[in-house]
Amino acid sequence: MLEVNLARRTPAIRPAAVASAGPIRIAPETGEGRLSFRAKAKALGGREDVAGFAVDGAINSRKSDGDTASLRLGPDEWLFICPEGDIDDAMSAIERAMDGAAHSLVDVSHRDVTFTVSGQNADAVINAGCPLDLSLDRFPVGTASRTVFGKSDIVLARVGHHDFRVTTWRSFAPYVHGLLLDAAKDYAG
Amino acid sequence: MSQPFRLPGGGRIDRSKPLSVTFNGKRLEGYRGDTIASMLLASGSHLAGRSFKYHRPRGILTHGSDEPNALLSVDWRPEKGAGRRDPNNRASVVEARDGLSVSTQNHWPSLETDIGVVNDLLAPVFVAGFYYKTFMWPRSFWDKVYEPVIRRAAGLGEAPEVPDADRYANRHAHCDVLVVGAGPAGLSAALAASEDGSKRVMLADEGFALGGSLLQDVTSKIDGQSAAEWVEAAVAKLDARENVVILPRTTVFGYYNHNHVAMVERVSDHLDEARDGLARERLWQVRAGQVVLATGSHERPLVFENNDRPGIMLAESMRAFVNRYAVAPGRSLVVATSSASAYRAALDAKAAGIATRIVDIRLEQDCGPELAQARSAGIEVLTGHTVIKALGGKRVKGLVVAPLGNGGAIGTRRTLDCDCVGMSGGWTPSVHLFSQSRGKLAFDAELDAFLPGQSAQAEISAGACHGVYDLKAVIEDGAKAGGGNITVEATASFTGFQPVRVLPTDVDPGKVRAFIDFQNDVTAKDIKLAVREGFTSIEHVKRYTTTGMATDQGKTSNMNALGLVAGVLDRPLPSVGTTTFRPPYTPVSFGALVGPARDELFDPVRKTPIDAWAEANGAAFEPVSLWRRAWYFPKAGEDMHAAVQRECKAVRTSVGIFDASTLGKIEVVGPDAAEFMNRIYTNAWSKLKVGGCRYGLMLREDGFVYDDGVVARLAEDRFHVTTTTGGAPRVMAHMEDYLQTEWPDLDVFLTSITEQYAVIALQGPNARKVLEPFVTDIDLSEEAFPHMAVREGYICGVPTRLFRVSFTGEAGFEVNVPADYAESVWKALYEHGKQFGITPYGTETMHVLRCEMGFIIVGQETDGTATPDDLGLSGLVSKVKTDFVGKRSLTRPDITAEGRKQLVGLLTKNGQEVLDEGAQIVADPSAQVPMPMLGHVTSSYFSSNCGRSIAMAMVKNGRARMGETLWVTTPSGFTEAVVAPAVFHQVQGAKADA
């Protein structure tokens, strides 16, 4: 009998690929589910959250609550993050919560790859390819923005003073990973 | 003693750290804190290179980055092997380190004996514009003789021949104030700017020690401290401030818009041990709120016969070698000057025990207090004297001087024996970066200099580059630029000079070789010749004579050249113009500019989730935009042709499997999704049922085909749009553009899902059999799941959007699965498909199969000027929709006119002959040239399924030419082909839409 229900995930960057370049840690996040949520203000009607995902943050902010997070990337655009196993439930809950109001909800869990870049000088490593001002007062903890890293688009979020998340499309992940590892060489000694 | 000219005490060298380098194969000794130039002088040698054009022996002219002569090839880590050598390093700024291997350039067989010196004897031939005048004819010599000869003779240094083995880093940074230059003005500016701890201040200096001119100042007192103490205290204070970043060895070389400043930091060349992975250089891109330019000034040489002899250097540079490097440039010194500042150099040299005399062009009464001070120190000063010429060849042996009389008369010559000369013709503020910032220069006649005028950006100049030369004023000016306001007490500096362009002489100036531009070997008489020949703008003189066009950008020569041109024309200097300063300020290595963008980090190489399987299974790849795609899968012994023919056959006879993951995919969601689709595409979408697919055609506003692809309706308010691989980003941008600017009222949102789903295409009569066992929750029967339909369900236990579509004409499916599952699903299908002879195929086979069916590829059949009707696709253009992008343009007269190129098939008379894609098509090959062209071949393949070659072409009035024989260009002439419908293959049995 043919076994047919055995599909396994093959991530773009194997989780084993952790670089501890001195004090800097660069590692792909695993088990992260991601949803692209779009809705205009009139559809949200001033609500603070949709099924537990915050929608009241400022543009370019990241709000987190336990193992979920909401990144507001534009006036009508959010990236919701939750454990990958919760994706189906989260989607149903969001659809219910929106109750027919105009919106778009698309599962992009497999589209994106997120890296943790953390440790002293993590900001300098990101500044090797990203032109944003990452000083703590200009890019405080809780900031998230679509930007570039070298020749790749990324979404950059700061979750701690020395703790960043770099999200890119799957096929750009090896490039972003390689450029991060290269930049970290400056701080290996 | 190997350093016979090293002074017994003083200097900023670390005598506890001796070191040696290899200089032209010989050992050269020095200390930490030395440059190669100071080590060479300590050894007693000035000879450091041969000149560019005449191969004249040249010495060390300066102590800084303006050095035009002493250019070295440096192997930075010879012990680590090849790839670490670069040419044209200035000996005056190469920081000495144990183990460097340096060599001089532009000579053969050796520095001492150089054959090229014959050029010097032929100098009367090599006048300005020599190339333009000489290498004009015969024309046949251009490629064969002149160019190779000139190429061999031209250029300085040898380009490296192996890839650079070093790593280069890149870094973006932001600050509130960037101070460029850490001399007295820059340090003072940085101190003032950083007093407010909330301001981020960066201080960059090209040197390895901070202090600028104060590094060679052993006499000035600032607020009771010595210059050295003041620098040390300033640096310590800055160092202690958290808000200050100090970057020595960092050259600001480019000043761009919005205070975007580029600089290069030399990170590791000076380190005895550089750990693996440490960058050699780092490119900084700084966005500064405010830029303070404290870049100092450049000393001008004096222009007299043989002023380029080794041993003749700038006076302030001589002072730097004596005071900073503790090196005597000679035993017997003559300082020739028209500037007060050179007296300080003479006094310091005298104090260091060097026999010193001064020749001053200025008359006694024009000199300041410096004159009395020099005389009271026992220095002989000849005022009102000109320098006629220098004596000596590879080393200066004396200066011939003569008193200047009334009315230009020149008195009796006198020879001053010497082995070194310090010269000064005054000072030129370094306005390079200010000029790069697009600020306007203003000429100050009093200072005989262009100074920063109107700023174009948030920038301010301070100190010598601002025309401020007195030390007290320099420090106060710096503080002001940094936002402070201080008063200091400082020793008065000797300032002021009398501009002289070319020193008066008692011989025919037309016979005198007095150098203006040392690096490009331009003499005063070359410039005079250019002016005589009618060049009156400095921009023209510059290009004709090449003055100021060498890698030093004329730092030492520009003002002398400008002044000379103005003098000959008898016009005020500013009316001649000033040259434009362009980045980089000093040469920058390609490595620093490239940074990490090399090898696998040169560009992102996008790979699909199935790429690893394809690679393991022997695929040949081709790049398609940033993607690498499997091109074909050759078996052992197969060439591309054989592999593609086998793959094509397999798809039509059994089943093929193809990775279509790179297709662009956009999820269009919202209550107005169908309306949006109606406006963006030419087709009508309202009637497409949920679960149905439709081929869509998209135009630009001009009516030409922009992209195409299959669109599936997943729900009333949800479409799954596919685009071409290369078109994905621009289609997304096109859609967003219309949505945001034209139709913000539509409630619809676009999300790229290109990389969310991998796409596995199964095509061929057995496709369904391969698929069937793995699919759950979808009825695959023909009735339940017809051609051009989409279903959502599961494959191998994971969610799929399963499309029943075909780009081959065969029955086929495209399996969309979340990307991380794709490899696993692919392998399951492939293993199960083996019993049907499943054949993986690549893009080439895909192209052949679709051509057999006459399916177009946007970008191959179209070139941005094809309308739907040109492609035979007018049926896809809705006649009932009130509007869509491009609709209005389709009624333009030229779009509806007769005679447009139309898509047709072409069949060569000889079925084995495959036309060239891009080949031109004509009706009559014997027509007169230029012969009327009817069109060109867009796609051409050999088709094993058709048993012959097939081609598509865009041909004028093509559809009316069916059966007509036309002529198509080949590499050797023309061949005949017959116009036919662009459908070549009739699918047997289970067709796509059966």
3D architecture notes:
The complex is a heterodimer of chains A (189) and B (994). Chain A has 189 residues and is an alpha+beta fold. In chain A, a hairpin with a 2-residue loop joins strand 7 and strand 8 (77-83). Chain A has helices at residues 41-44, 87-98, 122-127, 173-184; strands spanning 19-21, 24-28, 32-38, 49-50, 53-54, 61-65, 68-74, 77-83, 104-107, 112-118, 144-149, 152-160, 163-169. Chain A is globular and about 55 Å long. Chain A has a single domain (22-187), classed as Gyrase A, domain 2, CATH 3.30.1360. The longest helix of chain A has 12 residues, at 87-98. Chain A has a 6-stranded antiparallel beta sheet with strand order 1-2-10-13-12-11. Chain A has 4 helices and 13 strands. The model of chain A has no long low-confidence stretch (mean pLDDT 93). Chain B has 994 residues and is of the alpha+beta class. Among the domains of chain B are: 14-130, 2Fe-2S iron-sulphur cluster binding domain, sarcosine oxidase, alpha subunit, N-terminal domain (Ubiquitin-like (UB roll), Roll); 166-300 and 426-497, FAD/NAD(P)-binding domain; 318-323 and 331-369 and 391-422; 659-850, Probable tRNA modification gtpase trme, domain 1 (Gyrase A, domain 2, 2-Layer Sandwich), CATH 3.30.1360.120; 898-994, Elongation Factor Tu (Ef-tu), domain 3 (Beta Barrel). Chain B is built from 24 helices and 50 strands. In chain B, strands 8, 9, 12, 13, 14, 15 and 28 form a 7-stranded mixed beta sheet that branches. A 7-stranded mixed beta sheet of chain B has the order 40-41-42-43-39-33-44. In chain B, strands 45-48-47-46-49-50 form a 6-stranded antiparallel barrel. In chain B, a hairpin with a 4-residue loop joins strand 26 (441-444) and strand 27. The mean pLDDT of chain B is 94. Chains A and B meet through strand 9 and helix 4 of A and strand 8, strand 15, strand 38 and helix 22 of B.
